[in-house]
């Protein structure tokens, strides 16, 4: 190794020089702010510039059905969006990884990537133009005679789901493709020769093999969906009731930082719990999953 | 299922239909945004009223402020570029240092550190934003109370936006650059050292050119991620809004087609960036069949 050639102090100095920026980055921007946020969430304002340690912020969350409702709803919608994304992305990943030959596969892959180079704001603007009452799709429905009057397609739960699935597709397609590509075709051929039907092959060969990719995709999509702010607020309007919106309201609108910090930790806890559960379910390590995506 | 097995006609047909429908779903929003940037109507909505370039070039005398006359929007594009340039610079520098640390360094706690480096990707952007906002404000308050210092850069504004975006973009740069450094053939470095090259010369003439594709790639990704970031930025933004926050504000109010014009500009810019990257590195290794 080259390191052994250099004097010890030199190696130590280099190590310190490389370690310093990493520690500064993680310490000052990740660890310390989150510890501070934890402290903030565990105190209560008892007078002007006077605070006492308390669990009041968390108590408010559990006592107020509104906050609960929004929290559970956000989690539940995120689960649904993740499953829909998986269902929609799996066939296309299969086509790219297994069916398309030669250049067609990589071309299709690149074509699928293009929309995700554009910012989420632009994509959401597109959906708003398509779905609003005076928009493209309601007009089309009237022209086709399906509805008499233009209907408002924005501000429904289904609209939020469409937007979330659309935004998440890429993060599902990429890990699925890489896990499907490593599946040996001869296994599928062998199963077919032994008389297995399409469904059996899918259930007992393809899905077990692709499980790491499926988990990785689901974890990432769930996390991004749960933490999304733009898509639910723009496509759902007042009906979005998304938990990140509550955090924003407490922090920026009402300036109630203690409550906002507690909400932030609850969201972080939910997100982490789901990631852990996903990893445990398939016996994977965190680092491997992140590197896969 | 796979090409070597017989596939009935209905399966082939439905696969083709699925791919077609998928592509329509993927591109419909972008096509609509593009088309209505040229519609001669005050709102981005049907019917089609003829072609116009007003939403790009129009000025106040036409009662339509086009993109090139909209000082607010142009200013926010400038703000976004400035922020993205700083985020890119910081992320790629730290990413390179981290790559050497993780691939070459040997020290206790390395495993834990490498896991901690992944954490910013699992923390929702909104929470990264509020934690940095709260922490910075409390430091600023403390400095004000204790020493009477006015640390303005710790108040919501562009320096905090840069730090907030950097906090997670650095992870992505680290992953990209370490992945390339891991595949480096160490014998090249040993040969150069045996032939009498100094470590600095080895770094400059062998390692840096080898890492170049990863450095270019991670710069582009960092720039784009910063430009597109919304969640973290929204929490930390002060008086100067970057483009995403500005667009969000206008979209809530009911926007004019000027926003479609900006969007088209963004699509063309990021498309060009993507094309140059794809041409440099023709295929992703993982897609190779």
Describe the structure.
The complex is a heterodimer of chains A (293) and B (289). With 293 residues, chain A is mainly alpha-helical. Chain A has a domain at 64-116 and 157-292: MetI-like fold (Orthogonal Bundle), CATH 1.10.3720.10. In chain A, 77% of the residues lie in helices and 3% in strands. Chain A contains 14 helices and two strands, in the order ααββαααααααααααα. Chain A has helices at residues 2-5, 8-41, 56-63, 65-99, 103-113, 120-131, 136-143, 157-181, 185-193, 198-226, 230-236, 243-253, 257-282, 286-292; strands at residues 43-47, 50-53. Chain A has a two-stranded antiparallel ribbon with strand order 1-2. In chain A, helix 6 (120-131) runs parallel beside helix 11, helix 8 (157-181) packs across helix 10 and helix 9 (185-193) packs antiparallel against helix 10. The longest helix of chain A has 35 residues, at 65-99. The model of chain A has no long low-confidence stretch (mean pLDDT 88). Chain B has 289 residues and is mainly alpha-helical. Chain B has a domain at 72-255: MetI-like fold (Orthogonal Bundle), CATH 1.10.3720. Helix content of chain B is 71%, strand content 0%. Chain B has helices spanning 9-35, 54-57, 71-104, 110-122, 125-147, 158-182, 186-194, 199-228, 231-236, 243-253, 258-280. In chain B, helix 3 (71-104) packs across helix 8 (199-228), helix 5 (125-147) crosses helix 6 and helix 8 (199-228) packs antiparallel against helix 11 (258-280). Chain B is globular, with a radius of gyration of 24 Å. Chain B starts with 8 loop residues before the first helix and ends in a 9-residue tail after the last helix. At the A-B interface, helix 1, helix 2, helix 4, helix 5 and helix 6 of A face helix 1, helix 3, helix 4, helix 5 and helix 6 of B.
Brief digest:
With 293 residues, chain A is mostly helical. Chain A has helices at residues 2-5, 8-41, 56-63, 65-99, 103-113, 120-131, 136-143, 157-181, 185-193, 198-226, 230-236, 243-253, 257-282, 286-292; strands at residues 43-47, 50-53. At the A-B interface, helix 1, helix 2, helix 4, helix 5 and helix 6 of A face helix 1, helix 3, helix 4, helix 5 and helix 6 of B.
């Amino acid at each position: 190794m080259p390191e052994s050639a250099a004097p010890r102090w030199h190696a130590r100095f280099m190590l310190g020089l490389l370690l310093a920026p990493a520690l500064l980055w993680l310490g000052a921007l990740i660890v310390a702010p989150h510890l501070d946020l934890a402290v903030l969430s565990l105190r209560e304002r008892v007078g002007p510039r006077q605070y006492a340690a308390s669990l009041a912020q968390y108590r408010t969350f559990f006592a107020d059905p509104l906050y609960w409702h929004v929290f559970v709803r956000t989690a539940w919608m995120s689960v649904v969006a993740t499953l829909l994304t998986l269902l929609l992305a799996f066939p296309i990943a299969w086509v790219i990884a297994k069916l398309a030959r030669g250049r067609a596969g990589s071309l299709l892959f690149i074509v699928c990537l293009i929309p995700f180079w554009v910012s989420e704001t632009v994509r959401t603007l597109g959906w708003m133009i398509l779905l609003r009452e005076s928009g493209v799709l309601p007009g089309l429905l009237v022209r086709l005679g399906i509805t008499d009057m233009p209907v408002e397609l924005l501000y429904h739960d289904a609209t939020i789901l469409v937007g979330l699935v659309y935004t998440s597709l890429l993060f599902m397609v990429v890990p699925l493709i890489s896990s499907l590509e490593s599946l040996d075709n001869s296994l599928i051929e062998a199963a077919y020769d032994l008389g297995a039907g399409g469904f059996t092959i899918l259930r007992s060969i393809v899905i077990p093999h692709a499980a790491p990719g499926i988990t990785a995709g689901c974890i990432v999509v769930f996390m991004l969906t749960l933490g999304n702010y733009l898509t639910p607020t723009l496509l759902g309007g007042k009906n979005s009731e998304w938990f990140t919106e509550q955090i924003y309201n407490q922090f920026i609108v009402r300036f109630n930082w203690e409550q906002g910090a507690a909400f932030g930790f609850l969201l972080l806890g939910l997100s982490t719990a789901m990631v852990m559960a996903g990893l445990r379910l398939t016996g994977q390590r965190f680092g491997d999953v992140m590197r896969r995506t | 299922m796979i090409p070597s097995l017989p596939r009935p006609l209905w399966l082939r047909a439905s696969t083709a239909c699925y791919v077609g429908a998928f592509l329509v779903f993927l591109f419909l929003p972008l096509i609509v945004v593009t088309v209505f940037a040229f519609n001669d109507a005050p709102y981005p909505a049907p019917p089609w009223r003829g072609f116009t370039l007003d939403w790009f070039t129009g000025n106040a005398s036409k009662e339509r402020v086009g993109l090139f006359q909209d000082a607010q929007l142009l200013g926010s594009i400038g703000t976004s570029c400035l922020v993205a340039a700083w985020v890119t610079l910081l992320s790629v520098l730290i990413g390179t240092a981290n790559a050497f640390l993780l691939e070459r360094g040997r020290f206790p706690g390395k495993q834990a550190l490498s896991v901690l480096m992944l954490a910013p990707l699992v923390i929702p952007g909104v929470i990264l934003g509020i934690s940095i906002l709260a922490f910075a404000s409390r430091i600023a308050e403390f400095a004000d109370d204790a020493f009477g210092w006015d640390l303005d850069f710790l108040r919501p504004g562009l320096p905090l936006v840069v730090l907030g975006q950097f906090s997670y973009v650095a992870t992505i740069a680290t992953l990209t650059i370490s992945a390339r450094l891991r595949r480096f053939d160490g014998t090249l470095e040993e040969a150069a050292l045996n032939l009498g090259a100094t470590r600095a010369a080895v770094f400059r003439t062998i390692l840096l050119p080898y890492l170049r594709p990863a450095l270019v790639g991670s710069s582009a990704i960092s720039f784009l991620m910063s430009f597109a970031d919304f969640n973290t930025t929204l929490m930390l933004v002060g008086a100067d809004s970057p483009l995403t926050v500005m667009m969000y504000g206008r979209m809530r109010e009911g926007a004019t087609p000027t926003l479609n014009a900006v969007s088209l500009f963004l699509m063309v810019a990021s498309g060009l960036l993507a094309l140059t990257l794809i041409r440099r590195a023709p295929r992703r290794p993982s897609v190779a069949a």
